[in-house]
Write a structure and sequence with these properties.
Blueprint (H helix, E strand, L loop, with lengths): L1 H12 L1 H20 L13 H7 L3 H9 L15 H16 L1 H7 L3 H33 L11 H29 L4 H12 L1 H12 L3 H26 L1 E8 L2 E3 L2 E3 L3 E7 L6 H10 L11 H11 L4 H22 L2 H10 L2 E2 L7 H34 L4 H4 L4 H24 L22
Antiparallel strand pairs: 1-4, 1-5, 2-3
Helix pairs in contact: 2-8, 2-9, 5-6, 5-7, 6-7, 7-8, 8-9, 9-18, 11-18, 12-14, 14-16, 15-16
């Protein structure tokens, strides 16, 4: 405890770090205020059905999670940062598949600015489409409960689409400002703060359900202990790497010697991050669209895939996550490019010939490491369903795994890594004496 207080004092004594922390907290506070501002023309008392529909309901629940509950509250930030994430994922895939985008990515700072500009344009387009769908969704859900004020119906579509688009762009701007002048990745912090906002209410609901009988309090304590153990396991999954030794040939320039150093190429156990889980949830939401047909078969299929604690859902979900993990890793990880960069920089893996043999060796190591990582990621993804089947409240079970837990663990590690870097730059001790903190920013080396 004494070391913790000393570390906090060191953090607060650095003016630049203190300013970044306060700036970040201020912008996050502004975002949380916006999530409670209801759209014009919407009656807040008629939003009960919206909250029920989005509660643990496939992609709608995912959007509501990323928006910090603003989706179910019909807020001006109802779509949150989700359109920007969708646009960023699409542009990221384009940089792998389209040569023109690959060329822009290699142009350095100017190329990065062009890609960011394209991402913003695509975000506006995606937001307009999602906002239109959200208006239709609100009208359908609140038709009987009177969620939309009748006198405002004629203007509701136009005003809502404009406000939701402006709200998403404002949230995107907040995220960029946090990244530039604050602490940590702004987009990730906005998502994390929305997830954490649901934690106190979910915690109290779970405690209330267990406090009715004295014997259940012990079960609640066991649940908390298991949750802590799962968080520790997720930290190991996020930080786990397989280090491939790399040697660099010595070069004599004048009287100086360059190179000759022994370094490591870190291959992450979970290179794909949280993306396979997001893709899997989006894909498994498609069967629920059969509800629109009104057929019995469609309703049966939708019933299976809407229940995250269903055994068949968990099996299919795990298989899809494993498949997407290999697919996404193959898209973002190019062994051939790494082998070529090593060869250009006079680097080589001991016992492996440069060129194609090095690429094949790195690829084989990547496949061996990705398999257990994909299985562990799939297991983390189905943990909320397992917890729900064991009697945990649905709202609290989402913190036992899945997207929410992985995002929180990754973002917290990234932020702590930045704080530790600031401390070490000023010759203070790090946050922990036992070792350095590695966040998700440490990927497949900077080759």
């Amino acid at each position: 405890m004494k070391n913790l207080i000393k570390t906090l004092k060191n953090i607060w004594s650095i003016e630049e770090l203190r300013s970044k922390i306060l700036y970040t907290l201020l912008l996050l506070f502004i975002y949380r205020i916006g999530t409670h501002i209801v759209l014009p023309g919407v009656n807040p008392d008629g939003l009960t059905r919206v909250a029920e529909q989005t509660k643990n309901n496939g992609i709608l629940g995912l959007i509501n999670t990323f928006a910090g509950g603003a989706f179910s509250q019909a807020s001006i930030f109802a779509l949150g940062i989700m359109p920007y994430i969708s646009a960023s994922i699409f542009i990221q895939l384009m940089t792998v598949l389209v040569p023109q985008f690959q060329k822009m990515q290699k142009e350095g700072e100017s190329g990065r600015k062009k890609i960011n500009q394209w991402t913003r344009y695509l975000t506006v387009a995606v937001t307009v489409v999602q906002a239109s769908a959200y208006v239709a969704y609100l009208r359908q859900i609140t038709a009987q409960s009177g969620g939309i004020i009748p006198a405002y119906v004629d203007y509701f579509w136009l005003s809502t689409v404009v406000l939701l688009t402006a709200g998403t762009m404002f949230v995107m701007w907040l995220g960029e400002k946090i990244t530039d002048k604050g602490l940590g990745n702004g987009t990730s912090l906005i998502i994390m703060i929305g997830i954490l906002a649901r934690l106190p209410q979910s915690f109290m609901q779970e405690l209330g359900s267990k406090s009715t009988r004295s014997g259940l309090i012990l079960i609640f304590i066991v649940e908390i202990a298991i949750l802590i153990a799962i968080i520790m396991g997720c930290i190991m999954l996020v930080q786990g790497v397989r280090k491939i030794p790399v040697n660099y040939a010595k070069q004599i320039v004048g009287n100086r010697q360059f190179g000759g150093a022994r370094q490591f190429l870190p291959i992450k156990v979970n290179s794909a991050g949280v993306m396979p889980i997001i893709f899997a949830q989006a894909v498994l939401f498609l069967p629920t669209l059969f509800n629109l047909t009104g057929t019995a078969a469609g309703q049966g299929i939708a019933g299976v895939f809407q229940d995250h604690s269903n055994v068949y859902y968990m099996i299919v979900y795990a298989v899809v996550v494993i498949g997407f993990t290999f697919l996404y890793t193959a898209l973002i990880f190019n062994p051939k490019q790494i082998a070529d960069n090593l060869k250009q920089n006079n680097g080589f893996i001991p016992g492996v010939k440069p060129g194609q043999p090095t690429a094949d060796y790195i690829g084989s190591i990547m496949d061996k490491v990705t398999l257990p990582g994909a299985i562990l990621l799939a297991f983390v993804g189905i943990l909320p369903g397992i917890a729900q089947r064991l009697g945990v409240q649905p709202s609290f079970s989402t913190f036992f795994g899945g997207t929410s837990l992985l995002i929180m663990v990754g973002v917290i590690l990234d932020t702590l890594q930045q704080i530790e870097t600031q401390l070490l730059m000023r010759q203070y001790d790090g946050l922990m004496k036992s070792g350095r903190i590695q966040g998700r920013t440490v990927t497949q080396a900077s080759y």
